[in-house]
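Exam prep: given the inputs below (a chain plus uridine-diphosphate-N-acetylglucosamine), describe the expected output before reading on.
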Amino acid sequence: MKHIVIRGGHRLEGVLPVQGAKNSVLPILAATILHPGTTVLRGCPRLSDVEASIRILRHLGCDAQWQGEELVVDASSVSRWDVPDHLMREMRSSVIFLGAILARLGKAEMSYPGGCELGPRPIDLHLSALRKLGAAVEEKGGRLCCEAAALEGREIALSLPSVGATENAMLAACGARGETVIVNAAREPEIVDLQNFLRSMGCTVRGAGSSTICVAGGQLTKDCIHTVMPDRIVAATYLSAAAAAGGEVELTHVDYRHLSTVTAALHEAGCRVIGGEGRILLRSDGALKAISAVRTAPYPGFPTDAQAILMAALLKSRGTTVFVENMFDNRYRHVDELCRMGADISVADRVAVVTGVPRLSGATVRCTDLRGGAALMVAGVSAEGETCIEDIHHICRGYADPVGDLAALGADIRWEER
Ligand code: UD1
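Solution:
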């Protein structure tokens, strides 16, 4: 079994380019099937979730091949509209294929994605958006069956700004007659990237980044080349690691505007953070102080995906920091693992209280989920002694080369078979 082993206590120094964003490339990969032609994706990170999406694309009839660092998808001959159970189980966010398959073929079938490690993740908003456009959606024996003789552009008002439901609605709207207006849309930067991608395939779409997105339906006709935006959560991970371990790190291929709540928190904790065009510099002496309450919220609020990561950076801070998780029910599963390393954290419902401790000690810990695993790496670089991180397949869902990246910054980190 492969693990990640870290010997903490080394300052992090150096310049590191940030990989392309997982949460951007997954909906983009689903969107490739909207155009019966070729798409080239640059900066597509090699992640297990990306490989799972490639398997779905191939099952549907696409040709998807890596050509060096580029991923080339030819969706000329999409012939199937079902996603089999074993491919759905690999990745919960494959539900995003629903809107795209429906738009391309007029029907789609897949298993219900169900819960995941973050607790129940309903898809009622996805389904009601598709229904609004005229799709009949039924659940038969745990399978979701969607069908629409013709999708019609409509107003879709989301009751909360769900990222996935916004993306599914955008993709389905591409196959509708007329204009769709999505109200109370999620405003995450990854949705802007999806809009940019759809535009480069020939779609008329506007408003992404705001709460109202308008999509004009119609055949997407253009072959295109798209460069995936930088991953803001991976950037937050390496900034937090440098904050906790101490050092000076410059991240490139990053958009500092996407990270303002994270960098504000690190600044408040005592780091010097300078954002420039395409880069962020962070300097830390490793002696952090507690900060005011961190409350997760939809973008532009503090990202739930960075909650565990920032928490890990503050474990040795002077004072007490309160975290309030407002997005998911089960997002403190990393806490027990951090406590095995000597952290002082108490959790009650949505609130976690972190009281800084003088030192963390390396331990054998287990990833409970993707960002919880990233938090263990952040704690590991600032702990004394050796930390062995198990169940790292969670980390590989979102980090293309976590060991190579942190080693490039001077961390003592390695893969190990045990
Ligand atoms: C996406 C991200 C994930 C991130 C999350 C919140 C991807 C692949 N994943 O997940 O990393 O943590 O945004 O920023 O981009 N909800 C409903 N009904 C629905 C859909 C969502 O009640 O039909 C609720 C969820 O339970 C959750 C909240 O809405 O409480 C936000 O979820 P959502 O924005 O949909 O997250 P995802 O798209 O699943």
